[in-house]
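Here is one chain, start to finish.
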Amino acid sequence: MNITERILAERQRQIDVAHGGDTNEFDKGNTCNDWVAYIATYNGRATRKVFSNGQEKGGFVDNMIKVAALAIAAIEAHEKGWCK
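Its structure:
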C-alpha cells in the first residue's frame, strides 16, 4: 500500500471501530480543541518512539498514519459544522 492508501485504510479502521461504524455521534461531540488533543496524543507517541541510540525504535510511521487519519476526521467534522 502507498502512503495515501495507508492513511485512508486507517481512517476506515477508525470508522469501523467507533460506534459500530457510525462515527457521526462521536464526531459531533468533539470541539476543534478535542481533535487537536487527539492528534497531539499520537504525535507525542511518534516522537517518543523515534530514535534511541540513532536507531528507530518503531511506531513512528504507524503513529503518523494515525495523525493523518485523525486530521482527515477533524477536517470532515469541521466542514460538516460539527467542530466549533
